[in-house]
Give the backbone structure.
Amino acid sequence: MRHIISLLMENEAGALSRVAGLFSARGYNIESLTVAPTEDETLSRMTIVTRGSDDVIEQITKQLNKLIDVVKVVDLSEAGHIERELMLVKVRAEDGLREEMKRMSDIFRGRIIDVTDKTYTIELTGAGHKLDAFLEALDKGAILETVRTGASGIGRGDRILKS
Amino acid sequence: MELTGAEIVVRCLAEEGVEFVFGYPGGAVLNIYDEIFKQDKFKHVLVRHEQAAAHAADGYARATGRTGVALVTSGPGATNAVTGIATAYMDSIPLVVISGQVPTPAIGMDAFQEVDMVGITRPCVKHNFLVKDVKDIAETIRKAFYIASTGRPGPVVVDIPKDVTQHKAEFSYPKSVKMRSYNPVTKGHPGQVKRAVQMLLEAKRPMLYTGGGVVLSNAAEELTQFARLLGFPVTSTLMGLGGYPAGDPQFTGMLGMHGTYEANMAMQHCDVLVAIGARFDDRVIGNPEHFFQDGRRIIHIDIDPASIAKRVKVDVPIVGSVKEVLAEMVKLVRAGKERPDPAALKTWWTQIELWRSRDCMKYDRDSSLIKPQYVIEKMHEITRGEAYVTSDVGQHQMWAAQYYKFDQPRHWINSGGLGTMGFGLPAAMGVQFAHPEATVACITGEGSIQMNIQELATCKQFNLPLKVILLNNRYLGMVRQWQEFFYGNRYSESYMDALPDFVKLAESYGHVGMRIEQPGDVEGALKEAFALKERLVFMNFITDQTENVYPMIPAGKGLNEMILV
Ligand SMILES: Cc1ncc(C[n+]2csc(CCOP(=O)(O)OP(=O)(O)O)c2C)c(N)n1
């Protein structure tokens, strides 16, 4: 099962490598990992998307909790949550494709943020599967480059992750 | 007044009440060594290899429960210490290892003797720090000791660049530490503890499976009370030996790969199993799938939540210090009237005694060759079971665990988790420093002892009257045994050729050497050696080369698939 694990950690040098090292040393899978400081600059927040059986996910959260720099860990997938990822896609936008690309971007609520006479760069935000769907809907030959941030997640309502 | 970083380091160690620092100097730590020269709060022990510094600090920690301290220079000094750090990590031993680092402006420049110590040790420490500012030294060292010694203990590395030891700052040692990210629990959840006690009282075939956590949390007394109150059988892992008196009839011996028949069978056939500071590792339960063919309910007490439900599913998990949880359980049982069903318990004990009557630990006592088991038995007798015994890794380690019946905790000191050959001698030094009056013996093999034999010089310098018991079978015996059992007697590279004359070697280091070849001489030699209270005696026992460790559960098999003699 796919899980989204969110954690708060001390914003210290090397903290990220402790998490990355834990995943590789114990053979856990990482689909994506994002990290950035929070409004409290002493803390970083990380979102990790991983896959594993319930036993493995339990071990992952326990092992993460065991890291001395980690302040809090939640498995967001356990309850209501929102997941967003940002993607930038550079596509061919010549001749016949120009209209087509604009239309596709509109359908998926993307925004064209850079335009040349040959290309568009489209910005798209959403859950991972929506971004996948957009890429699938495009003509493969038209895609020049994609870059994705990996998922960020947050709990719904009053489900709050604080130190 | 402002102090230099080096002065601060030394003051911090004094504030922590450190008695011994095991170390080896070098460029990056020269400032610290200069301050060590000027102080008299702690003693510095100059080892002959940095691996030994870490092992000696580790032996000191295991024998006392206090945090061991090692100090090494950057680069090769630091990497030499890594095996010792990993050894401590695997067995949850509290260590603080201070390593020198190249000056901060040189970091990342591939400077002379630069190595990313924080990076290298990350997977084998509880935590590590690189101190970049002299103002952070005191707080970092305070945290290092706190982290190393609380919760599930472990080694902490503090890497200090040379320029930071020169810079100056005001010194004040923090009285306490508070870390929002680290708050180990000690008390078990009361509801869970109650459930566990209820389950135990209803058990028909209970078993107490105890591990290193009992020793680490100083819970031997609580465990003994608990086991006696309920009358349950007890087994112990290699790491837990001494946590429950081996001479007690309720003790069924060690379990696992080289455990007793009765302990392993009881483990497999019990209906309620209480794991106490133990972690169901592969050398203990073998293959978890086999282990689960027979249903049983499991209560697991451990301070580390990540150790619970890692390899086996658990019915009642209790996160907490083994000591506190056991004390709580004893209180609960005493407060109630209910006791386990005596008839069921009697039937269970009859079964266990039947298994015990297999006498799985017998060996040929009439051999014309020295049997290693016999040496350990005699040694147990002559030291009245009171010695601190360290060991290296191999067959001799298993025989020591099986035949030296440990009645007290912290007396059996070995590398269980990492299985580090070369651990025994330096660890014994640490133990002897901690307990100068005690009898300390190192049981070793001719392979293992050569991995840190240079420490005989340290022993001479500090007059450590260790007794080195070398069970010399001219083979990397444990390797040879596996090759005999599983590789068609193809003894690939397991013969130890070109051995030195150990008697001369010991003598050249200034110690007493003995060579014992006849079974009839074993007892007399041991008596003579242990009577030499002031000297290190190196005893080279020429043992039966063909002897194997029994019983044995082949790797990956179930607990009931033992090879017996
Ligand atoms: C540093 C290290 N290298 C290799 C091993 C693998 N190993 C485990 S036991 C053993 C043989 C040990 O031989 P010896 O010290 O002579 O003891 P014996 O088994 O003969 O009692 C070896 C090589 C190890 N445990 N540690």
Summary: Residues B 392-396, 419-422, 445-448, 471, 473, 475-479 surround thiamine diphosphate (CB under 6 Å). The interface with chain A takes residues 118-119, 122-123, 126-127, 130, 147, 179-182, 304-306, 309-310 of chain B (CB under 8 Å). The longest helix of chain B spans residues 50-64. The mean pLDDT of chain B is 97.
